[in-house]
Amino acid sequence: MAPAPAPAAALPRSLLLLLPLLLARGCAQGLGQTRFICTSVPVDVDMCAAPTQGGDAAEELRGTVLQLRETVLQQKETILRHQDTIRELTAKLGRCESQSAAEAPGGRRQPGPAKNTMGDLSRPPAAETLSQLGQTLQALKTRLENLEHFSRLNASGQGSNLKDILQNKIDDLEKQVLSRVNSLEEGKFGPRNESEERGKIESTLTSLHQRISDLEKGQKDNRPTDRFQLTFPLRTNYMYAKVKKSLPEMYAFSVCMWMKSSASPGMGTPFSYAVPGQANELVLIEWGNNPMEILINDKVAKLPFVINDGKWHHICVTWTTRDGVWEAYQDGTQTGSGENLAPYHPIKPQGVLVLGQEQDTLGGGFDATQAFVGELAHFNVWDRKLSPGEVYALATCSSKALAGNVIAWAEGNIDVYGGATKWTFEACRQLN
């Protein structure tokens, strides 16, 4: 016979009760899916009150669950939006990489250039490139005519033969340019083919410049060492000249030169002086549609020059560290002045002085969009402020004109690279 159940008083004071029936009926009405909740109830507690307490707890739990569910749904929507953005950006990046790979030789992406301290400009359009090539060919023809005249005066049969050979090469180049124009009009050139074609033509031009320069060396004995000019026919990152000596520490300076250019937009950088830790210690630049500017320790002053008309112009810029006072002269006349240009900052020594290119690093980091296009001569530097009379003497090619006491214009002071050429200076000859 089974034993009788123990009386309630014999049970412990706390009982662990399961309430499935209560939650399944009145206490859990409206909660949806049934949940089992374990709770501790003292012996002397009225069990009729338990369903009410359990119902309050369940209602609170239900509210918490709904709030969490809403939060999860919001986070899910945010994640989906981010995923769509990521997919869109990934697609754009893929297209950019594909285009870059197609433009690079051999289908490989080329490494990016050095940091550009002057900002970026887009590559010149094909029409501008063709115009530059046409100007270069015309300049080569002019130089060959001068050589021919020189050869006749000296009865040099060898010079005449070389002239004929070079003339034939120029004719071939003209045919290549015309062929390139036709191909561009018909849309045959892609970015890669255009780059290769441009490289071939520039390589041939560089070779021609070198051959003509070799011929012109025969004229050096018949001219003073300062009667020469530098020619930068194309906007490249490899044509430049470097002054052999550095600038000293200067608390004032005057920089003067002759220039001729018709480049657009902007004639580029006639000269730049960089020192360790500062690529823009002293820079003269005209880039894009901006006016010509002079930079001292990265501080800028706009200069009122109007000189890109294809004619020779003489320009001077003077500066003193006291209050940063500067003056600008064009063709012997003062055209502008100002102050607070890098006041009390001396020009630092032990740098690199380059003609025709803007330096982004010490002695390098050239950007073709900032290259000087044109001709340059009589670049002189003084460590003092010139008087208006001294500037005028320089601009009129007076016999009283002074040479720079820091940098004097002489062939022995300058090295030329990349096809930039030296030949007889013509501006003062025209004035005289």
Automatic annotation (TrEMBL):
Highest taxon of the lineage: Eukaryota
GO BP term (any one): axonogenesis involved in innervation
SUPFAM superfamilies xref list: Concanavalin A-like lectins/glucanases (SSF49899)
Signal peptide: 1-30
Keywords: Calcium, Disulfide bond, Glycoprotein, Metal-binding, Signal
A molecular-function term among this protein's GO annotations: metal ion binding
Pentraxin (PTX) domain boundaries: 226-428
InterPro entries, A to Z: ConA-like_dom_sf, Neuronal_Pentraxin_Related, Pentaxin_CS, PTX_dom
Positions of the UniProt region annotated as Disordered: 94-125
Keyword Calcium found: yes
Identification of the protein by name: Neuronal pentraxin 1
Source organism: Nothoprocta perdicaria (Chilean tinamou)
Record gene name: NPTX1
